[in-house]
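FORM 7B: Structural annotation worksheet

SECTION A. Query
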Amino acid sequence: MKNSQNDKSEETWDTIAKSFDATRQKPWKQCIDFIQTLSKTDIVADIGCGNGRHLIPCAQICKETTGLDISRELLEIVKDKLIINNLNNTSLIHSNIVYIPIKDNSVDAVLYIATLHNIKGREKRIQSLKEINRILKKNGRSIISVWSRWQDKFRKQFFKKWFSQIEKSEFGAPVFSNFIEQN
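SECTION B. Predicted structure
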């Protein structure tokens, strides 16, 4: 997992872990709706689990859960929450999200929330999505969300960056949010 981009990303997320946790306690409704469709026999991976705000509800419902994140500090926060909630069906993995250290065809569902857009480079984003496909069982499901660069609060910043990026490298990530079924 060692490379300068990973190191920088890990350092950044470790630095902001406590403030991130303090400002992001409430799970998203769309995620809770997805989680409520899961069964008590499901094995679920939360890729880019952050502070565990979606992982904890999964662990309360599902047989087994795995939280994966590049930040050791965020994983420590999740670990404390698992103890507080008396949950012992969750594994935590410190890793990047481009090469996911989970076995092929081993999970029933994946949560991939507000994470994909943090990967620099189109090829690495595609690789990460291929990893999601690889770890999902046949007929597995995932919920994937990406920040929209067209939100009103980001529009000015987007145009400023976009105009400065003309004829340079690719700008931004594809935008989508959907339930995906693995066939």
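SECTION C. Observations
The longest strand covers residues 136-145. Residues 167-183 have pLDDT under 50 and may be disordered.

SECTION D. Sign-off
Analyst initials: ____
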